[in-house]
Model the fold of this input.
Amino acid sequence: MRKAIVFAMSVLMAGSLILSGCSSKPDSAGETADESKAVEGGTLIVRAIGDPMSFNPDLNADDYYYPAAQNMFHRLTKMDADKNIIPDLATDWEWSDDSLTLTFHLQDGVKWSDGEDVTSEDVKYTFETIKNVETSCPFNSNMSVVDSIDAPDDQTVVFHLNTPNVSLVSNLGWYGTFILPEHVFNNGQSWAENEATTKAPVTSGNFKFDEYKAGESLKLVKSEYAKTEPALDAVVFSIIPDETTAVQALVNGEIDVYEAVPTASQAQLLADDSIDMYINEYPSPMRIVFNTKNEILSDAAVRKAIALSVNRDEISEKIFDGLWAPEYSMYPSLIEWAANTEDTAPEYDLEEASKVLEEAGYTKDADGYYVRGLKLLAFEGSGFPDAAKLIASSAKEAGVEITVEVMEYNAWSDAVYTNREFDIEIQGGFIGPDPSALLPRVGEGGSDNVGEYANPDVDAALKQGGSIGDEAERAEYYKEAQKLLSEDLPYVPIVAYACYDASRANVKNLPIEGAGKWGWAEYTYTEFTE
Done:
């Protein structure tokens, strides 16, 4: 008996609205709400920060290549602008009653850019290789729950799991899950050595690879085999690492799209009638993480006192002009179905912070400190150092001495993720596309549990939440885990990530405008108007 399809992520984003400067908002693909007329064809120029690591989108977690890959490859599922999971190569899917068998039904008539058909054998090959051969792939660890994959016909693929894990559907819409052509890659070479990785990819999307100039640009053109014909002729990802240069290129009309506008340029672009600005929110809260193996921080009272010292309003206003809103939920409040907004991290209260320490037996020294000698590591950029300094300043008022060390990102990553040599660290990062993403971050032995926190009750609740198909039932387990986390405080959420995405005003049907209809960073429906 089939279960109903479960869309494992239901995000409601109140902030994904068009703000000042926008002349129109699309009602549906290819249509705009004003009387502007679409211009056929054209080349869209999108700012990219850096060069792709390779042309194989499954080999690395490659932020620089991701937007281009989204337009050249299919996945079984994908995320839209609201970070909801929607169909991609799969038209629909269902779970068996025991949640151990997941069956996908695929689109018919999808072709590779060399004219070959895309079939379930490509899906089977891709994920079997990720699981059994390419252990460096970012999705490799997710495949541990999959025992085997069947392709009973060209349009059906079946995943057989060894443990119930309904979050697999959502995770398949994230990093390292693009379907690759078996006839190109299954030739005895490793994926890293294959020419489709190093020189020119064979793709299945509505756009295909055309030209790459290192340090300059990556150009895609409309595929003659596109299942849905793009409105544009081409998309060029123009590589401009420097933010100031990129902003000026947008103002000058040299680029058409700029995602994640720097805070310092927001006012300028909001005042420019030739630019449209859109708020884009992500379940990627800024947070401080405690090393629970640290002798001082192993005491929950100290962690709570520091949590009470975090002035979120000050950080939001002084560093992010209020765009990054205060976040209290232990899982992003953006994801409304899963977030526990009742049992949260404590609000700012310096008097209560001192009281907590005194009740735990701490006394002030001659300099007015209950606790001394803690260091907070922050990586350069994105407001993280400034936030760390404000947290340290507030903690000082509560009687906790924290010094801030700002590091280059790779050095910070080595200290935090590789060596686990820190007292407190401040980080961001996407906690999604499903609340199951909490488990590797706080579960005992989790790959991203840098603070080495352990609570078997939290682990049990998170694992149970990942094994149930019904969203409402799942939410109860995830909310119970968050309640426990709000008591233990292995980390403290600070502000929710948000940014402005910008485009020239004559560009319509951008990815952010297509919630529920097309994918995040997908330009199939984007068009110019006159």
Q: What stands out?
A: DSSP finds 15 helices and 21 strands in the chain. Confidence is low (pLDDT under 50) at residues 1-33. The longest helix spans residues 471-488.
